[in-house]
C-alpha cells in the first residue's frame, strides 16, 4: 500500500474506533440503570431524610422489577446547605455522572440557584421541600427553558393559605382570638408566605398588629420576643425553617405567654422534642404529614419501612422525596424514554397518589406552572401540636387525633 | 400617655441591662480563656469555638442518649471541654512547638493554622454525627423571676452568677496560689521563670487544663441559655478573638472589660436598632480602636 493509502486506512480505522467508542456507552445506557441524582443537606436533620427516602423508594422499585427491567440507581451529593456547592454537584451529576433526573434540596435559595442549570443542562429537577413561589413563577416567565423544573412541595403562598384555613377553625372558631403578630426569618421562602399571611389572616378574622422579619443568623431572640409581647397579640404567627431550636427554647425559657402557630419546619422532625429538651410543648406547626396520620393508604407503610431501615421517622421532605422517585419512575415508564423533553411531557401529566396526598402539577398556562395542586381533592395539609413528647394532629377534623392543649405559662386571650 | 411611654422605656432599659449582663458574662468567660492561652503560651487558638460547640453537644448528647439529668449533662460537657483542650495541646500545639523541622519565627503561623484546621475537623465531625442543627442543654435552673418588673428567666441570673464565680476563682488562682503565680510569671517572662526552677511544660499543661474547664463551662452555659450549632464554631472564635484584640492582646483584665463593652453594644443594638445588625457596632468599634490605639484598651505589648 502506498503512503496516502496507508494514511487513508489509518483514518478509516481511527474513525471506526471513535464511532465504536461513542456508540458503546450509548447502547450501554439504553440497558443500564436509570440514574437519579439526589442533591441534599445530608447533615441537616430535615435534609438527611431526602437521600434516605429516595434510596428506600429506589430499592422498593428495583425489588419489584425496576422500570421495564432497568434498575434505578440513586447518586447522592451532600451540598452542605450551600447553593454554590449544589450548582457544582448538579453540573457534575448532569455532565459526568449522566443522571436522568435530579431531586434537590429543601432550601429555596439552593433550588433557585439550580433552576437555570436545570434549563441549561436539560435535566428534569424536582424539589422535595423548598417553598418559594418564585421557583414556579420563573417557569411561567420562561417556560421553554425552565420547563424541566418541578416543584414537588407546596408553594409558600399555598402553605399560608392552608395555615389560614386551620387558623379559622382552631384559633378564631375555638379560641376566639382576634390579633396576631407575624414573626418570620428573612429568607426567600418567607417573602410570599408573609405577604399571603397579611392578606388571608384578616379574611379569617385575625388582625395583624405587626410583621417582624429577623436575620436567619439570629441566636438571641430575647429582644424579638420582648417586642412582640409589648404589642400584646393573641398569637405569634411563625414562618421559621432555618432556625427552630433556639427560638423555641428561648420562648419557653422566657415564658412568653403567647402561643406560637404557623410554619416551623424543624418542629416537624420527630427529634425536635429531644433537640429542645421538651421546650416545644404546645407549639403548633403546619405540616403535610404526622405520626399515625394516614393521609393516604401509602403514608403509614412508608413511615414504618423508613423507621425500620434508618432507625427514626422521616422528616417532612422524606415523604416528598420518596414520592418523587416513584412518580419520576412512573413518568419514565409512561414516556417510554429518558429523553428530557418527553419526560417533561409525561411529568406534567402526573396523577399519582403519594404519601402526602394526590400529586398533580399545575399547567403551563397558570401563574405557577409545575406547582403542586393544593386543595381538598389533592393535598390539604395538617395542623399539628407537640403534646407531652408526641406530635398530635388537630386539623382537618376528619384526621384529627387530639385536642388543643397549652403549657401553663400561656395566657389565651391576652389581647386588651 | 406620657407615663405609659416612660414605663415602656424603663422596661426596655431593664431588659437591656439584664440581657446585656448575661450575654457579656458569657463572652467574658470565653474571652478570658482565649486571652489566658495567648498570654501564657502565645497561642491564638482558632479552635476555640469548636471546643465550645463540642462541650455543648457532649452535654446535649449525654442528656439525649444516656438520659443524664441536667447536672450530669453539664458535668459531661465540662469534662469534654477539658479533655479536648488537653488533646489540642498534646496533639496539635506541643508537637509543633517542640519540632526542630520548622524555623522558630515560623512556628506561630504553623500553630495558628494547625488550630484552625483542628477546629474545622472537630466542627465537621460534630456535624457528621449529630447534624448541624442547633442543640440546647437542659437548663439546671428553670422558671422566671421578676427583676424591677421585668420577667427574667432564672437561667440568665444563674449564667451570670456562674460566670462571675468562674472568673473570680480564676483570679484567686492566679493571684493567690503558688501555682497560679507561676502561670502569671510565665506569661510575663517564660525564660525568667525557668531560672526559678519551675518546669515550663508543667505550666503550659496547667494553663490548657484551666482553659479547658473555662471553655467547657462557657459552652454549657451558652447551650443552656441560647443554644449552639456546629455553625456557631466560627462566629464564636471570631467573637472571642475580636474581644481579646479590643481588650489588648495578652491582657486578661482587658478581655474582661472588652467583653462587657461588646456584650452591651450588641444588646443595645439588638433592642434599639434591630437584632439583625447586632454584631456591627462592636466590629466598628474594633476598627476604631485598632486605628486610634492599636494595643487595645488595656494591652501591654
List the helices and strands and how they pair.
The complex is a heterodimer of chains A (416) and B (301).
Chain A: H1 3-31, E1 34-40, H2 45-63, E2 72-78, H3 83-95, E3 101-104, H4 108-120, E4 124-127, H5 134-141, H6 143-146, E5 149-151, H7 156-174, E6 179-185, H8 190-204, E7 207-214, H9 222-231, E8 235-240, H10 245-253, E9 260-264, H11 272-275, E10 284-287, H12 299-310, H13 316-335, H14 340-348, E11 352-353, E12 358-359, E13 382-387, E14 390-395
Parallel strand pairs in A: 1-2, 1-3, 3-4, 4-5, 6-7, 6-8, 8-9
Antiparallel strand pairs in A: 10-13, 11-12, 13-14
Chain B: H1 2-41, H2 48-65, H3 70-98, H4 104-130, E1 144-147, E2 150-153, H5 154-176, H6 178-188, H7 190-195, H8 200-225, H9 233-247, H10 252-272, H11 280-292
Antiparallel strand pairs in B: 1-2
Helix pairs in contact in B: 1-5, 1-8, 1-9, 1-10, 2-3, 2-4, 2-8, 2-9, 3-4, 3-8, 5-6, 5-8, 6-8, 9-10, 9-11
Amino acid at each position: 500500500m502506498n503512503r496516502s493509502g496507508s494514511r487513508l486506512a489509518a483514518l478509516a480505522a481511527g474513525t471506526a474506533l471513535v464511532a465504536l467508542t461513542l456508540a458503546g456507552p450509548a447502547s450501554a445506557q439504553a440497558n443500564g440503570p436509570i440514574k437519579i441524582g439526589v442533591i441534599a443537606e445530608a447533615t441537616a436533620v430535615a435534609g438527611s431524610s431526602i437521600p434516605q427516602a429516595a434510596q428506600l423508594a429506589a430499592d422498593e422499585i428495583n425489588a419489584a422489577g425496576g422500570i421495564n427491567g432497568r434498575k434505578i440507581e440513586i447518586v447522592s451529593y451532600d451540598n452542605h446547605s450551600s447553593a454554590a456547592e449544589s450548582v457544582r454537584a448538579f453540573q457534575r451529576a448532569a455532565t459526568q455522572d449522566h443522571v436522568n433526573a435530579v431531586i434537590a434540596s429543601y432550601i429555596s435559595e439552593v433550588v433557585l440557584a439550580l433552576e437555570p442549570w436545570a434549563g441549561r443542562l436539560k435535566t428534569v429537577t424536582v424539589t422535595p421541600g423548598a417553598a418559594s413561589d418564585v421557583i414556579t413563577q420563573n417557569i411561567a416567565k420562561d417556560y421553554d427553558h425552565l420547563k424541566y423544573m418541578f416543584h414537588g412541595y407546596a408553594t409558600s403562598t399555598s402553605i399560608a393559605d392552608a395555615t389560614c384555613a386551620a387558623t379559622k377553625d382552631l384559633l378564631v372558631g375555638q379560641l376566639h382570638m382576634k390579633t396576631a403578630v407575624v414573626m418570620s426569618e428573612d429568607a426567600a421562602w418567607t417573602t410570599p408566605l408573609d405577604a399571603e399571611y397579611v392578606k388571608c389572616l384578616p379574611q379569617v378574622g385575625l388582625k395583624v398588629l405587626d410583621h417582624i422579619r429577623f436575620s436567619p443568623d439570629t441566636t438571641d431572640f430575647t429582644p424579638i420576643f420582648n417586642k412582640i409581647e409589648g404589642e400584646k397579640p393573641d398569637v405569634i404567627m411563625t414562618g421559621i425553617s432555618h432556625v427552630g431550636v433556639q427560638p423555641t427554647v428561648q420562648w419557653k425559657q422566657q415564658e412568653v405567654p403567647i402561643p406560637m402557630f404557623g410554619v416551623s419546619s424543624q418542629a416537624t422532625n420527630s427529634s425536635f422534642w429531644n433537640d429542645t429538651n421538651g421546650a416545644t410543648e404546645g407549639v403548633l406547626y403546619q405540616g403535610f404529614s404526622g405520626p399515625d396520620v394516614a393521609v393516604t393508604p401509602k403514608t403509614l407503610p412508608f413511615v414504618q419501612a423508613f423507621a425500620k431501615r434508618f432507625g427514626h421517622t422521616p422528616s417532612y421532605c422524606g415523604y416528598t422525596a420518596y414520592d418523587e422517585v416513584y412518580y419520576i419512575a412512573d413518568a419514565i415508564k409512561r414516556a417510554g424514554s429518558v429523553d428530557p423533553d418527553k419526560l417533561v411531557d409525561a411529568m406534567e401529566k402526573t396523577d399519582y397518589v403519594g404519601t402526602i396526598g394526590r400529586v398533580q402539577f399545575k399547567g403551563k398556562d397558570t401563574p405557577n406552572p409545575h406547582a403542586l395542586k393544593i386543595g381538598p381533592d389533592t393535598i390539604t395539609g395538617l395542623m399539628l401540636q407537640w403534646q407531652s413528647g408526641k406530635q398530635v394532629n388537630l386539623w382537618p377534623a376528619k384526621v384529627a387525633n387530639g385536642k388543643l392543649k397549652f403549657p401553663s405559662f400561656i395566657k389565651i386571650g391576652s389581647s386588651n | 400617655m406620657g407615663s405609659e411611654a416612660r414605663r415602656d422605656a424603663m422596661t426596655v432599659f431593664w431588659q437591656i441591662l439584664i440581657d446585656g449582663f448575661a450575654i457579656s458574662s458569657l463572652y467574658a468567660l470565653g474571652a478570658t480563656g482565649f486571652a489566658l492561652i495567648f498570654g501564657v503560651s502565645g497561642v491564638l487558638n482558632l479552635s476555640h469555638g469548636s471546643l465550645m460547640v463540642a462541650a455543648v453537644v457532649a452535654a446535649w448528647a449525654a442528656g439525649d442518649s444516656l438520659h443524664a439529668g441536667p447536672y450530669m449533662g453539664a458535668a459531661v460537657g465540662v469534662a469534654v471541654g477539658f479533655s479536648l483542650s488537653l488533646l489540642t495541646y498534646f496533639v496539635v500545639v506541643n508537637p509543633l512547638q517542640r519540632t526542630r523541622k520548622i524555623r522558630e519565627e515560623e512556628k506561630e503561623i504553623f500553630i495558628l493554622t494547625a488550630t484552625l484546621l483542628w477546629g474545622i475537623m472537630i466542627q465537621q465531625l460534630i456535624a457528621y454525627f449529630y447534624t448541624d442543627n442547633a442543640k440546647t442543654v437542659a437548663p439546671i435552673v428553670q422558671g422566671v423571676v421578676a427583676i424591677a418588673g421585668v420577667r427574667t428567666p432564672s437561667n440568665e441570673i444563674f449564667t451570670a452568677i456562674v460566670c462571675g464565680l468562674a472568673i473570680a476563682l480564676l483570679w484567686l488562682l492566679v493571684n493567690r496560689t503558688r501555682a497560679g503565680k507561676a502561670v502569671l510569671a510565665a506569661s510575663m517572662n517564660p525564660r525568667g521563670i525557668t531560672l526559678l526552677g519551675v518546669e515550663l511544660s508543667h505550666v503550659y499543661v496547667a494553663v490548657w487544663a484551666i482553659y479547658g474547664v473555662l471553655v467547657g463551662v462557657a459552652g454549657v452555659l451558652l447551650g443552656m441559655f441560647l443554644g449552639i450549632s456546629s455553625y456557631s464554631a466560627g462566629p464564636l472564635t471570631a467573637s472571642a478573638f475580636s474581644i481579646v484584640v479590643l481588650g489588648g492582646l495578652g491582657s486578661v483584665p482587658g478581655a474582661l472589660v472588652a467583653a462587657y463593652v461588646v456584650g452591651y453594644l450588641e444588646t443595645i443594638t439588638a433592642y434599639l436598632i434591630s437584632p439583625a445588625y447586632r454584631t456591627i457596632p462592636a466590629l466598628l468599634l474594633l476598627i476604631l480602636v485598632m486605628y486610634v490605639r492599636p494595643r487595645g484598651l488595656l494591652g501591654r505589648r
